[in-house]
Amino acid sequence: MINQDRLWNRLMELGSIGKQASGGITRLSFSEEERAAKRKVASYMEEAGLTVYEDAVGNLIGRREGRNQDAPVVLVGSHVDSVYNGGNFDGPLGVLSGIEILHTMNEQEIVTEHPIEVVAFTDEEGARFSFGMIGSRGIAGTLVRDQLQNKDQQGITIAEAMSEAGYDPSAIGQAARPKGTVKAYVELHIEQGKILEKRNASVGVVTGIAGPLWLKFVIKGEAGHAGTTPMNDRNDALVAAAGIIQLIEEEAAKTGSTVGTVGQLQLYPGGINIIPGKVEFTLDLRDIDEAVRDKVEQRIVTGAERLCEQRSVRLKTEVLQRVAPAPCSSVIQEKAKEACVKLGLEPISLPSGAGHDGMQLTELCPMGMLFIRSKDGISHNPAEWSSKEDCADGANVLYDTVLQLATKE
Ligand code: HGY
Ligand code: MN
Ligand code: MN
Fold it and tell me: What CATH superfamily classification does 4-209+325-406 receive?
């Protein structure tokens, strides 16, 4: 069994890095806070007796050798970057549990056939550049140079932020793992929903990951005087945006499985007495079924175009990222359920509404995920919480699942 106090203390200690006065955590990719968190995680990897290194896209990796050092590696991990004002567990749970299971294997002098690596992926959330999963795309070999041109709110590109942090954007290809070099990838994460809590279960086995589609809407109307412009003579970009946001909620709700969220909105010029001339906002649209999601996307964009025409404002939409939903390996699901039963836990299966790095790795290797219960289903919020016991249950299921994968051919 893993050392649950060590895991918990590291979770709490890491959670103090990037903590805001609001109580939330902000650790954006290639920021000083994220670098400090990676230094702290590297020290835990060293304490665990792992060989520590970074790859060309800044993924931080701790490696434990097996009997056969040329055998394909079993990968575990998650991320330590966060959303704005996020919670303590989203990401760090998977990285620190990965370190904890390897620390325990070293203490128990367990010998596996395969080497095992724990990775803290660069920029899973995409909070800073509105383009995420950079580290896992790098390992999958699917990250391309023009994707590094995405900008943050200060106009800094990913490539510039990488260079400033000491990485060479032109070398991203070196992070790619050739097919056959990775046996499996397994991630432990908080559920960020209410299914396990409703089932009164600490751990669940993930069946598949919903695919996030991120769009940017830019509406151009005409700025004007709030006092002298009659209501029937306006090209108000914000009122048009309000109509589209209403449409998003209606179209997403229709399918019963799709979720649509407008998380960012900027209006210009932003004076109290000026009719907004321009509005930019984002849409995060997801469904476990890609065809359903993309049909909803089409209905929203068509409806938005019609609405903007009626209001004589101009609409431009841009795809920021389009990630296909990803099924989890049935072999890994079975091994994880076996691990649950061994620990006296009911083997519960559930889908993931949230996106995760594992969805970038499905072409490279079989992918599996485990969830632990989230209090009130809250996440991306300082109130995000999971109990010490549930973290320990999750890490012990991860431990046994990874041991099954790493001991046999
Ligand atoms: O957005 C997500 O689903 C994840 O938290 N990156
Ligand atoms: Mn998240
Ligand atoms: Mn996450």
Answer: Zn peptidases (3.40.630.10)
